[in-house]
Amino acid sequence: MADHAAEHEPAAESLVDKIKEKINDHGHDSSSSDSDEEKLPNVVESVKSKVYRLFGREKPVHEVLGGGKPANVFLWRNKKISASVLGGATLVWILFELLEYHLITLVCHIAILSLAVLFLWSNASTFINKSPPQIPEVVLPEKCVLEFASALRIEINRGLAVLREIASGRDLKKFLSIIAGLWVLSIVGNWCNFLTLFYILFVLLHTLPVIYEKYDDKIDSFAEKAMIEIKKQYAVFDKKVLSKIPKGPLKEKKKD
């Protein structure tokens, strides 16, 4: 295995610049220079395709996160909105975790306060010669509910299919990675409850993507070295342990 699988983006750009300089220094005629210019984009694409990217991404971080408003919030495109969302999540965590406020109690108190204000306002409007409050009629659309239920069903079926594939014993590497991930998650769950864990993940979503977008070249270079080392250690583990585990023949049913 090679020590370095690929160079990072600045090296790729410097290589492209060198190619451009060589093409310009040759002093070919117009026809040959035109053909060189046509070949140059292919050279650029071939060089950039060899650059290692974390998780094998080929798109910008904004598109990886799905684009649109959620990606703008995670990447702090609008600092006021992102700070408001993160501040709101922090306030909720402080209420429920530090102050030990309960969700049902909070909902009931908000409902009591809202109904009391609207009730008093509606009755007092006749005495103060002002129009009563316009309470909007809220109706949950059937289409939105069906779309949400359909999307949830698809994700649940996808998760069940992944679990079935892992349990079938066909991919030992995926099985070990899932077991290790669940084991780490169980340890983290022993340290904190679900709300704290959810809040930590929410904060990470608002910090890690924007840091990665800013320093992606350095992070990708470090991740490349880490993946090379992990593959080396896995190869040693596979040679000394996994290869010695007896495996029965897996016969798949052939469909007619």
TrEMBL record:
GO annotation, cellular component aspect: endoplasmic reticulum membrane
InterPro entries xref list: Reticulon, Reticulon-like
Reticulon domain boundaries: 70-256
Pfam families tied to this protein: Reticulon (PF02453)
Cellular localisation: Endoplasmic reticulum membrane
Keyword Ion transport appears in the UniProt entry: no
Keywords: Endoplasmic reticulum, Membrane, Transmembrane, Transmembrane helix
Keyword Transmembrane: yes
TM region(s), chain numbering: 81-96, 102-121
GO biological process: response to bacterium
First-listed, main subcellular location of the protein, grouped into a coarse class: endoplasmic reticulum
Membrane topology: Multi-pass membrane protein
Protein name: Reticulon-like protein
Lineage: Eukaryota, Viridiplantae, Streptophyta, Embryophyta, Tracheophyta
